[in-house]
Amino acid sequence: MLKVLVINCGSSSLKYQLFNMKDQSVLAKGLVERIGLEVGMLKHMPYCKDKIEVSDNIPNHKVAVKMMLDALLDKNHGVLKDISEISAVGHRVVHGAEKFSGSVKITDEVMDVLKECVAIAPLHNPPNIVGIEAAREMLPDVPMVGVFDTAFHQTMPQYAYMYGLPYELYEKYAVRRYGFHGTSHCFVSAEAAKMLNRPIEELKMITLHLGNGSSITAIKNGKSIENSMGFTPLEGIIMGTRCGNIDPAIVPFIMEKEGISPDKMNEYLNKKCGVYGISGVSSDFRDLEEAAKNGNKRADLALKMFSYQAKKFIGSYAAIMNGLDAIVFTGGIGENSATMRQMICKDMEYLGIKIDEAKNQVRGKQADISFEEAKAKALVIPTNEELMIALDTMSLVKTA
């Protein structure tokens, strides 16, 4: 039985899922959080067994990987008899720059390239690298694969990914738009083609990965030709705590007025802005919807800004594709918020989008929420980035 372990490391967390690739079922999944803080936590959820929670000091990702493996091997709550049952490990890596147009087996040379990418992904790649290094140390004989958020968007044409900056900055520092959430956009676009019973090579669709981090992609004939995120995941639509698109001149203006250093400004734009900064309530859209219902005008403003900006991206992407067959909602908000889907799709009949409010009352499962006569279908498709990572990992390991 081919078993693939998928690991997704954040700065203070480690998410994991163990797949049986024979039927693509999840044998166990879990989360190690608060790594490096005084008290950490492991939450382990094995299939058909009771979940467990363990509090302990988890000083680093190496300890987190050991806790994960111990949980998978536990005689009462584990799903493995021996560590040798793990055939391969797939790692989510946020930024592969222009170096990787697809997933790759992890070697020392690949690790060197990932470290080179830290300069353009300082918030995301370091924890990914730390997690890979910890897993390689704990599982030295298990093949490992890196799956990149940016890889799916390497098909964007140059005129789409270049900025209006001197060309030398691209040549010297690779300053360009990369796009993110590629694994999610790739997965849901393939699922959408199945739902529509049409070859993906014939479709023009817009996929909306809406969550605390949000990105929107134009997919023409199965290839990404545009994504709302850019050089980093800060660009694009307003998000939970990220500002999204703003006039660049605002940055030095605020730095001077508030006396903020470049590092602190970067943190400010990523963690203090977005709908959280607008509302003053929360970055969680469930909280915003509840506050807006109770008359909170700033929460209502944040929701309207989010839906308005999403609508602008949909319109512009339909224009660059010269048509539209479907839009796909995914991510925590896209899959679960009927309110936000309705706000985004309102008054979009000119693009052929018209959703049925009864069908729209769906959460977390595949659904066509369009009226029968709608020319452009509106679909809800739960993303499964972990399965995509597992499939890519299995494919590379089998062909090695």
From TrEMBL:
Q: In which pathway does it act?
A: Metabolic intermediate biosynthesis; acetyl-CoA biosynthesis; acetyl-CoA from acetate: step 1/2
| Molecular function via GO | acetate kinase activity; ATP binding; magnesium ion binding
Residue positions annotated to bind substrate are R92
Q: Name one Pfam family in it.
A: Acetate_kinase
Textual note on the cofactor: Mg(2+). Can also accept Mn(2+).
A single GO cellular-component term from the record reads: cytoplasm
Q: Which CDD domains match?
A: ASKHA_NBD_AcK_PK
Record field: catalytic activity:
acetate + ATP = acetyl phosphate + ADP
Q: Can you say where in the cell this protein is located? A: Cytoplasm
- Active-site residue list: D149 (proton donor/acceptor)
- Indicate where this protein is primarily found: cytoplasm
Report the superkingdom from the record.
Bacteria
Keyword annotations for this protein, in alphabetical order, are: ATP-binding, Cytoplasm, Kinase, Magnesium, Metal-binding, Nucleotide-binding, Transferase
Q: Site annotated as Transition state stabilizer: where?
A: H181, R242
> Quaternary arrangement and interactors, per the entry?
Homodimer.
How is this protein named in the record? Acetate kinase
This protein's species is Tepidanaerobacter acetatoxydans (strain DSM 21804 / JCM 16047 / Re1)
- Which gene is annotated as encoding this protein in its UniProt record? ackA
